[in-house]
């Protein structure tokens, strides 16, 4: 990797730059800036003179194209027009996406609240109702610039990043490449066997992206909106034991079916498994396929250049009975 590759993408995003960006759109900042939780992007609450604070979202450079971000914004505006409780970007001079000093950013109104309680049937039913309405709007059109939830493309991109990083010990490279080929073969078959309809989705629907206050629910952070099966927006809401999952699904489905048939057939995509990966009888990693997420983690030897793990991620895959080459074995349901 070059020095440029290792440089943090937000190293230039100073408080002064944030305020300059907001003020470039005609606002006067009062110098109060509060960084908010965000993994991929940088999000700030920015104080505005004589007005309510605004939320400024700076998109991670090179992650999404401008067209993809505008499509996210258009989806939010469409949902808001359908009276679905989303936080849509502000429209300023007919635009929602702006550029300042190399950063793409947008402004949003501030909305407050707390994560809903998954132990509350009332909260779960409310979430189910709004998800169904979101999906009704989502199936009215198709994304042109956002990702499609699919297996091979995601895992190929992730594995190529791992292989080109220079961080993987040479002793593991051929085994890794072989395992990736086997995973891809079974992933392709899974997608062939399960051709569920796709629609525009939130894509990252967990409780951290839901805000509830005084029975008002807000669906926030559509940065990962995708085209995919409806179950993508449901499975991440589940927590606890399998029995708790079933109870939560029943309540979510009850609310969901007030507006749209619940996609029960897609539950096949949520069956969990975990298997140890062994090479010549020794454990070298864990293969987790808890669809819609697959994570391959390698536990390298102490002398390895990269000690924590490297991985390849994929959405919507269920793999079983995998046969691996080059001495690699999966322990069944470990």
Descriptive overview:
The protein is α+β, with helices and mostly antiparallel strands and 334 residues long. The protein folds into three domains: 9-109, 2-Layer Sandwich (Phosphorylase Kinase, domain 1), CATH 3.30.200.70; 121-146 and 198-266, Transferase(Phosphotransferase), domain 1 (Orthogonal Bundle); 151-194 and 269-330, no CATH class. The chain is built from seven helices and 14 strands. The strands form four sheets. Strands 1-2-3-5-4 form a five-stranded antiparallel sheet, covered by helices on one side. α4 packs across α7 (242-256). The longest helix is centred in the middle third of the chain and has 24 residues, at 170-193. The chain is globular, with a radius of gyration of 22 Å. It starts with a helix and ends with a strand.
What's the layout of helices and strands?
Blueprint: H1 3-6, H2 15-23, E1 29-36, E2 42-48, E3 51-58, H3 66-81, E4 98-100, E5 103-109, H4 121-138, H5 151-164, H6 170-193, E6 199-201, E7 210-213, E8 216-219, E9 226-228, H7 242-256, E10 273-279, E11 282-290, E12 293-298, E13 313-315, E14 328-330
Antiparallel strand pairs: 1-2, 2-3, 3-5, 4-5, 6-9, 7-8, 10-11, 10-14, 11-12, 12-13
Helix pairs in contact: 4-7, 5-6
Q: Compute the number of strand runs.
A: 14
Q: Uncertain segments of ≥5 residues (pLDDT<50)?
A: 271-275, 288-334
- Please tell me the total number of domains: 3
Strand ordering within the main sheet: 1-2-3-5-4
**Structural class by secondary-structure content:** alpha+beta
Biggest sheet descriptor: 5 strands, antiparallel
**What is the radius of gyration?**
22 Å
Shape verdict: globular
Beta strand %: 15-25%
In helices, the fraction of residues equals: 25-40%
Summed over residues and divided by their number, the pLDDT gives a mean of 81
> How many distinct helices?
7
Element-level helix/strand string: HHEEEHEEHHHEEEEHEEEEE
State the distance separating the first and last CA atoms: 36 Å
């Amino acid at each position: 990797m070059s020095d440029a590759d290792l440089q943090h993408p937000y190293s230039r995003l100073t408080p002064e730059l944030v305020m300059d960006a907001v003020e470039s759109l005609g606002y006067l900042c009062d110098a109060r800036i509060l960084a908010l939780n965000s993994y991929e992007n940088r999000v700030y609450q920015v104080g505005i003179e004589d007005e309510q604070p605004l939320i400024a979202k700076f998109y991670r450079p090179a992650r999404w194209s401008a067209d993809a971000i505008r499509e996210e914004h258009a989806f939010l505006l469409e949902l808001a027009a359908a009276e679905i409780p989303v936080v849509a970007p502000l429209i300023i001079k007919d635009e929602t996406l702006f550029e300042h000093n190399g950063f793409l950013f947008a402004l949003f109104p501030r909305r407050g609240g707390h994560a809903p309680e998954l132990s509350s049937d009332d909260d779960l039913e409310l979430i189910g109702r709004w998800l169904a309405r979101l999906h009704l709007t989502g199936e009215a059109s198709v994304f042109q610039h956002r990702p499609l939830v699919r297996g091979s493309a995601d895992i190929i991109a992730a594995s190529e990043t791992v292989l080109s990083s220079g961080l993987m010990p040479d002793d593991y490279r051929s085994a890794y490449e072989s395992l990736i080929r086997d995973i891809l073969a079974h992933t392709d078959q899974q997608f062939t066997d399960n051709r569920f309809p796709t629609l525009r989705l939130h894509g990252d629907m967990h409780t951290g992206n839901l805000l509830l206050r005084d029975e008002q629910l807000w669906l926030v952070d559509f940065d990962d909106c995708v085209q995919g099966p409806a179950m993508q927006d449901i499975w991440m809401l589940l927590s606890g034991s399998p029995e708790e999952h079933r109870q939560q699904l029943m309540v979510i489905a009850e609310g969901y079916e007030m507006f749209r048939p619940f996609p029960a057939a897609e539950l096949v995509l949520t069956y969990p498994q975990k298997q140890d990966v062994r090479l010549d009888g020794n454990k070298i990693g864990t293969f987790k396929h808890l669809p819609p997420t697959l994570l391959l983690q390698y536990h390298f030897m102490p002398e390895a250049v990269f000690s924590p793990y490297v991985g390849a991620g994929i959405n919507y895959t269920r793999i079983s009975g995998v046969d691996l080459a080059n001495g690699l074995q999966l322990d069944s349901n470990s």
